[in-house]
Amino acid sequence: MESTKFKELITEAFEQINSLEGKGEKASYIPELSRVSSDKFGIHLSTINSEEFGIGNYQEKFSIQSISKVFSLTLAYKLLGENLWNRLGVEPSGTAFNSLVQLEKDKGIPRNPFINAGAIVIADVLLSYLENPKEDFLAFIRSLTKNKEIDYSSKIAASEKSVGYRNVALCNFIKSFGNIENNPEKVLDFYFDICSLESTCEQLSEQFSFLANNGKTLHNNTQIITKSQSKRINALMQTCGFYDESGEFAFKVGLAGKSGVGGGIIAVHPNQYVISVWSPKLNPKGNSFKGMLFLEMFTTSTEQSIF
Ligand code: GLN
Prior knowledge:
- Helices cover about 45% and strands about 10% of the residues.
- The chain is α+β, with helices and mostly antiparallel strands.
- The chain folds into 2 domains: about 5-65 and about 200-300, Beta-lactamase, CATH 3.40.710.10; about 70-195, 3-Layer(aba) Sandwich (Beta-lactamase).
- The two termini are about 15 Å apart.
């Protein structure tokens, strides 16, 4: 589709949804996240032909939270290859992002890398493999684009750590099955740092463009992961990116995507484009209320979804 048509349809959907009463609640279980203004709404689209378009608060930083789980999976997959799957699975969980229930039956092997349990195991893998985990992980994400502004927020990490009881439970429970190698406190500190990353819609769609481009960055043509790994990460986003709402996202939007409780959503149409949305109020499943609605309207009006 030509870019003026894309811009027109994005603007139309943005205006329509922006005027709606924002249903949902902010993620107040992390105190810092409840301080963000509920009215924020930003969109940014980046195509693999390097065409870009943004609207609303698309250049404002927000807490990307679980969207970062795609970056940590990418680096762990790059480092360990298929051995990574000895530590966690690739099946949708059908449970909430912070659920403990399946771990007992599954003997400490999390269902997938996008629920908290799986991302905690990935944080453990990175701690074992990276010399300076916090710095090296950030450097990895910064290498994905020309723009190097993404960074951790120590305030948000501390805020989550002060109340992160469920994640503490998850990490210790997994450790009891032998699937955490490092000290649980260190693993959790790194996990909270990863969740605290802040980025803008504009930067996110650029950072994720390698997943629309068969594993290769757009800005300098670097093969970050293999084509097959890129395909598999997209498949995981498609099936597990929205927890127990992944089916609904596939059904209504038809893109590979990942959400975070900061209200961000990133969605990928392989070989076509990446689109990022941010609106802080969440639906009961912990996914951005307006973000989901916008993406549904976007893929419906453009007829540009995977299916
Ligand atoms: N930091 C959040 C948590 O662990 C991430 C959850 C999310 O974004 N879905 O609870």
